Amino acid sequence: MSTIQPIAGELEPHPDVALVEQVRGGDVSAYDTLVRKYDRQIFRIAQHITQNREDAEDVMQDAFLKAYEKLDQFQGNSKFYTWLVRIAVNESLMRLRKRRTGKMVSIDEDVETEEGSVPRDLADWAPDPEQNYSQSELAEILRKTIQGLPQGFRIVFVLRDVEGLSTEETAETLGLSVPAVKSRLLRARLQLRERLSRYFRKKKGSGESRSEK
Amino acid sequence: MTCTEFLALLDDLIDDSVSVETRTHLQEHLKGCDHCEVTLNTTRKTIEIYRSHEIYDLPAGLRERLHAAIMARCKKGC
Questions:
Q1: What is the C-alpha to C-alpha distance for residues A83 and A42, in angstroms, rounded to an integer?
Q2: Distance, in angstroms, between A44 CA and closest chain B CA?
Q3: Assign residue A164 a region: left if phi > 0, alpha if psi is -120 to 50, beta otherwise?
Q4: B68 in contact with chain A, both atoms CB, cutoff 8 A
Q5: Distance of alpha carbon A138 from alpha carbon A191, whole angstroms
Q6: A163 inside domain
Q7: How far does B19 lie from chain A, in Å, by closest CA?
Q8: How far is CA A149 from the centre of its chain?
Q9: Do A78 and A144 fall within a single domain?
Q10: How does pLDDT run along chain A (213 residues), one tens digit per residue?
Q11: pLDDT tens track for A16-36
Q12: Claim to verify: residue A140 and residue A73 sit in the same structural domain
């Protein structure tokens, strides 16, 4: 047999590594593949941070262009996707700073809230509570709810729970410690849960309205 | 186990990163505490809803326009 067998226990290189190598070798079309693979995620992350569609469009373009320019600096010891997300997060924060000229914007702001408190709202939810709303109503509820979270919680929740980064990758991307990410994630999840309860709680009897707060 | 202790381990339970022994303690607490059971179930549902619903979509037309702009600049060497 002439094929090279991977050594037992050795990790297969991530397919992105080969694409990055091709781009470095001058094959621009390989970059096209990378952009198509991750553009939706980068656009989403930018929207979550900037909360503005035009800014998110600019961030998406700038992040991919910056990644292309800096591709030589990509070490390959982190995933290309995580590296790209870090660029997009930084671009998004820069964009926010431009908008709020003079005001510092960081992922550390607005995170001083009560720590680890036991949730107050204990109403159970209806089974499949999202069925009570149309797709557009539901999207609006989810947008409004997550936009109300402090920035530092929102980014952690989005990267970790929506985009599927690990706790360690989220920490590395945001320049936070692992315990800081864990603490923010717990509070983000609990705050979102509590806020969504307004819409999703089980109705007692038939005459109760959807939203009581 | 108190509710506060349960809550401190909630994320680890949701992310399935607790030891067998801890899981047993957590499950024992859940048996007698509706409060924490509701918190666990609805927090799980919160994550699932956000994961499965696209709240910021990228329409095909916009996607193609942004894509073309990115690739045109990359081809020029940015």
A1: 11
A2: 6
A3: left
A4: no
A5: 18
A6: yes
A7: 17
A8: 13
A9: no
A10: 444 454 544 567 788 999 999 999 989 999 999 999 999 999 999 999 999 999 999 999 999 999 999 998 888 777 899 999 999 999 999 998 888 765 555 656 545 555 455 666 577 898 888 888 999 999 999 999 999 999 999 999 999 999 999 999 999 999 999 999 999 999 999 999 999 999 998 876 544 444 443
A11: 999 999 999 989 999 999 999
A12: no
Residue A209 lies in a domain: no
B-proximal residues of A, 169-188, CB under 8 Å? 182, 185-186
Q: Which residues pair with A201 in a beta bridge?
A: A125
In 3D space, the residue among A193, A162, A159 whose CA is nearest the CA of residue A176 turns out to be A159
Residue A208 lies in a domain: no
Q: Choose from A19, A62, A124, A182 for mutation: most chain B CBs within 10 A.
A: A124
- A205 in a domain, yes or no? no
pTM of the entire predicted model: 0.85
Here the CATH number for the domain that contains residue A155 is: 1.10.10.10
The number of folded domains in chain A is 2
